[in-house]
Amino acid sequence: MTDIRVPVDGADPSVERNLVDQLEGPYPGTVRRVVVPLATTGAAAVDWTSRHPLLTVVLRRDLVEETVRVSVTVDPGGAGQRVLPPVVFAPWSAAGASVPAYAPDTADEPLVAPFTVAVTAERAVDGAAATALTGAALTGLVELAVLEGNLGRLLYLVSYEKHRLRRAAREVHAYRTLAHARRDALDRIGADVGVARFVDELVHEPASGDVYARRLAPPAREPDAAYAHRLGLYRRFLLPTPDAIRRLLNGPGADTDPNAGLFADLPGGARFTLREDDDRFAVAIRLVAAGDPQHRTNFLAQLRRDRLVLPANTPPNNTTHAGRALPSGRLAEVTALRASLRQSYAFDSAHAVAPPLATALDRAGRVCRALGSTIVWQVTRAQDDAGGSRYELGLGVDVSWPTPAQATDLRNRVLDTGRAVTGDRTAEALIAAARAAGVPTVAADGELAWLWRVCGVQTAHRISTTRMYLSHLPTRGLAVTAPTVATVGADAAVEAQFHAPGDPGGNALLLAGLAAAATAWTGAGEPAWTPMTDAAARTRWAGVPTRPAGQPVDQVLAAAGLPAVRDPAPVVAALNRLPDELVETIELPAALASALIAGQPTAADRLARLVGLLRDQHLAAALPLVDTGNRVLLVCSVIGLPQAGLNLAERRATGFRWYTVGLGGGSADIKAVGARTTLRPTHAGLVAVVALSYVRTGLTDPYEFRVELPDSVALTLAQYERLMNTLTRVCPLGVEINTFGIRRDHVDLDADGDAEPLRPAVARTFRTFQQRRHRGVYDQL
Prior knowledge:
Blueprint: H1 15-21, E1 32-36, E2 43-46, E3 50-51, E4 54-59, E5 66-74, E6 82-83, E7 87-89, E8 98-102, E9 111-112, E10 115-125, E11 131-133, H2 135-141, E12 142-148, H3 150-159, H4 161-175, H5 184-193, E13 200-205, E14 210-215, H6 224-231, H7 242-250, E15 273-275, E16 282-290, H8 294-306, H9 315-322, H10 328-344, E17 345-346, H11 355-370, E18 377-381, E19 396-400, H12 404-415, H13 425-437, H14 449-454, E20 459-462, E21 467-471, E22 478-481, E23 485-486, E24 492-498, H15 508-523, E25 530-532, H16 534-542, H17 552-559, H18 568-576, E26 583-587, H19 590-598, H20 601-616, E27 621-627, E28 631-637, E29 654-663, E30 667-670, E31 676-683, E32 685-695, E33 704-708, H21 717-730, E34 736-738, H22 740-745, H23 760-763
Parallel strand pairs: 16-23, 17-18, 33-34
Antiparallel strand pairs: 1-12, 2-10, 3-9, 4-8, 4-12, 5-6, 5-7, 5-10, 10-11, 13-14, 15-33, 16-32, 18-19, 19-21, 20-21, 22-24, 24-31, 25-26, 26-28, 27-28, 29-32, 30-31
Helix pairs in contact: 1-3, 5-6, 10-11, 11-13, 15-20, 19-20
């Protein structure tokens, strides 16, 4: 099939010129066609005596959605001046199309004396007001041509309809494209992709806070431009890859360029950001003997005999390694690994570590030696049958804390780009990777996490002021507490906890978040709050009085986004059932508490700022309790709280999932979720209890990406609706798209330029663009 976008006449689209060129037999040379030069002033002259001339106006380029009107004046300024009727080129006329402008009467005399003409033109785009064309714009758009002879006139007459056919073909083709389709053509494209034209509009009701679809008064419908913008999402081939989604949302260009994608209408050309830097899961493993404790004893003995690396150069250790059924090459590699470890670490003769941890520690030691450091890390604890989930499998070691001088020396050495390169290519690659990732100051990273992380040691957790725990597994201070022996058929209590640095202690995220929020709060000139111990907090909870409704403090708490507890008894009962390490209580400053209870509006603003600080530190919930004596307690948590739920975050900040792995015939059932759970062995043997846990620190979850906008950018309801449908279109199978920040901070409901947080019910209020296709539905779309 001929492509109508390609001129069938080749590079020259003029119909009459091609007809003249293709004359055969006695006719070649009998028809003359001459292009008349047109000055930028619009003046032209037919400066020869012509025979049966026909003056035509010819288009020099294709038209789109524009109309061109050309007026020709014969003998301008002379005695025979005559203004001819204007000629019109309709939209989508093709280059080379012509319209007859002047045909002198040659019935009595075929020859016509030379004459002059003046040409003016105007252009109207898509029904708008016409604008005059002058100068180069005029000569670049039209030209004049004279066709001579009766045969020439006849040929022009019989071929004139070709211009209309070409224009109609171009128009039909254009209306099949989204950029130019209008009215019914758009509706047909919408029917193809299952997207109907809206007959309603989204409206926000300020009084109730609801968003609903209000039907437009007939015959009003969604405008063509808005409808075409929505259809553009479905008239393209899309793969749900990160780059494809970024191009769809932002268009081409760098991160600093204005938005040129589906959301080019965002204020200031703002671009979306896709976050996919995951918070890694933490893992801990605890061995429990089901029935006979000898199952666990035998397993650990075999583990030490056949699997673990014993770095110390002692006869018992050498005999153990020599007795393993390994190829000689592998035995030589282990011997070299043990020798390399001893150069940078001081091990006791009984110390043993898991092979992956030994390899990671050796990398760190080789980096230190390549940097020219003489530091030797004192290992104070390694595999320990009684060491709990951190040590019993040899998955972690305790090493001495580096002195400030040692940490500073290593940092200076790794940042020294002029140092001599050693022959250890592995160490040199790790040094380059550490330098590229960034080396924090000693004050910010006293445990040298930059060193351990780049070498494969994923956990560097401070145990005390003199020791830190290292592991190749991501643990983040996680520890599992469970009995070493459990009776078959009986329940055994199991608990997991994220210890803060310097453990044992409270939840790491909770304590770190409260400490950072307290620093920011006092740094803004506010008085410090008072932290409370767990025991003191529970005592204060029990004394919180019942309050009547309608007190001024209730409105202030609501303005800050916090619930008002009037009947504390059920709330306190639920709080007492929560694990101590997941909940912390603070007492607000006395002046702020008094202002809150008095219902002062400024107090609401101060409390809202405090809540914002807690939210920024990724805490999940905050619950105020109004105590006696003008005192206010604030219960903070990384999980949901009674009556408050998750009012600081979309999801809880920490969680635990439990698994069991049977070893040697052992098996057990375990409740799958919760910081505290119950293990019930079902068969005798050995069971590995595995806790897979997470701490949300502002990064994304695995199998999730987050869509963000710059601060102060607010979406209209229509843009928010378009965004949600766009993300639905490109959501990969098995991947979650997190839009919590968009819904909380970037939707302008009342068109005042400021964003309002969407309530959970309102957050899902948007119309679905693409409908399911069913038989017989085509004509209804």
